[in-house]
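ingest -> validate -> predict -> emit
validate: passed (alphabet ok, no gaps, 496 aa)
predict: started
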Amino acid sequence: MSPAVDLLVVGGGINGVGIARDAAGRGLSVLLVEKNDLGGATSSASSKLIHGGLRYLEQFEFRLVAEALREREILLNAAPHLVRPMRFVMPHVPELRPAWLIRIGLLLYDYLARRDALLPSTAVDLTRPPYGHALEKSLRRGFMYSDCWVDDSRLVISTARAAAQLGAQIRTRTACSGMRRSGASWIATLQNADGICEEISVRAVVNAAGPWALRFLTDAVHIDVPYRLRLVQGSHIVVPKLYAGDHAFILQNNDRRVVFAYPYHDAYTLVGTTDVEIKGSIENCRPSATEVDYLCAAVNRYFCRKVAASDVVHAYAGIRPLFDDGAGNPSQVTRDYALRIAGERTEAPLLSVFGGKITTYRALAEQVMETLSHWFPDMGVRWTATAPLDGGDCGSAGFSPWLAEIHRAYDWLPKTELDTLARRHGSNLPTVLGDARSVEDLGVAFGAGLYAREVDYLVKNEWAVTAEDVLWRRTKCGLHFSPDQQAALRQYLKAS
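emit:
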C-alpha cells in the first residue's frame, strides 16, 4: 500500500490544526482526524487569553515568555477579528508581592515584547475612576499592562479552515484507533462515528491528542512511553457583570497564584483559573465545588460586589496536558511544550506533542515542521508568521476601519448583532450573510442573534454537526439560550 498522504495529524485542538495548516502550506499532503469536534476539549475551555504569561517570569521562564510575547503580536495581526488588545489592572496587595518587584517584572515584560499595537505598563491610582470604582476601598494603588483576549474555539476553526483551503483534509468524528509500521510508512486504522473502519498509509504521524496523547501511544500504537504528563484541570466561572469597562483584572491570591477577571458577553464577567492535578478520569471534566468556591473567594477579596456559587451562570473546565518536569506544585509545572519522536530517525516518524499553550501554538507548529524536515527535505520554508488566518484579512487599514465599512454595508442588521457576527467571522462575513438584504432574509431566528443562515454556514463550512458544536464552539450563544431554544436548534439541525 503506497502512502496516501504525507502527514497524519491526530487531534483537532489548537496544536493539531496549527500543525495541519503549517504542513499544508509547505506543500505536504495532510490528513487531520479528530475523534469528536474541533476544539472540543481544552482548546475551547481555556482562559481565552493571548498573553506572555507575566507570572512565568517568577519561574525564570524567560524564553517561554519572550516567545509568547512575540506570538501575541503575530496573532493580533493574523486574526484581528478574534484577537484584541486588553488592558489588565493588578491591584497592589503589599503582603503578597512588593510594589518594586511588580514594577520590575512589568518593565521586563515590556522589554521582552515587541509592542507595535499595545500600550506599555504603568502605575494606576485606584482611588480615581475608572479602574477602582468596583474594588474594595482598601485597594488604593495598582499597576496596568497590556495583553490580548481571544475567542479560543473560533481560533481553532479559523486555523482549520486555513489548513483546508491549503488542501488539508479535516475529518471530525473520526478516531485513529490503531497504528502499525509498514516499511517506511505507517498504516493507520481510522474509525468514523458509525463504526466504519478504513486503513490508510502515511509517511509520518503527529500525535497532537493533548490530554489523550499518552493514551494514544499506549492504546493505539502499543509502545512503551518513558515520560509522563501532568494533567492539570483549569476551571472558570461566569458570573453577572462585576464592573463597568472593557479592562480586565489580575487578582493575586495568598497561594501566589493569580486569577483573571474580565468582561464576557456584555452582561457577564469571566473568572479563572484554577490548577488542580487530575489523577482519575479526564472525560467530561467539570469544575468541582471546591474550585468554584476558590474563584468566588478571589472575587470577594477584591470586589465590592460579592458572589457565591449560586450566582454562577456557567462554569467550564479544561485539562492542561503539561510535560512532567518534576515540579511538586501543579502551578509551577512548565507551560512550555516538548516534542518527542518514537523510533529511529531512519524509520517513518511518529512525533508527539506534549504541553504548550494556545498563545504559542503557531510557533509550536513551526517547530514540529522543522523537526520533521529530516523526512521531508523538499518541503517549503517557514511561512506562517506573516500570513493572515481565515477571516483575518480585514484590509491594511486595520480592523476598526473595516468594521466601520461593514456597518455601512449592512445597516439593516442591528449593530450589536452585526458586531458579534463580524467578530466571529471577520472577512468571511459577506459570505455568511450572502444575498440577505433584511433580517427576514436570514431565516429562522433561534435567539441571541443566531439565525438559520449562519447555522447553515457553520454546518456547511465549519464542520458543525450538533447543537453543542454551534452553541458552544462556533458561537457562545449557549450562554444565552433557554432549553426551548436549544431544543428548537436541535430539531432544525436534525431536519437539515
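The mean pLDDT is 93.
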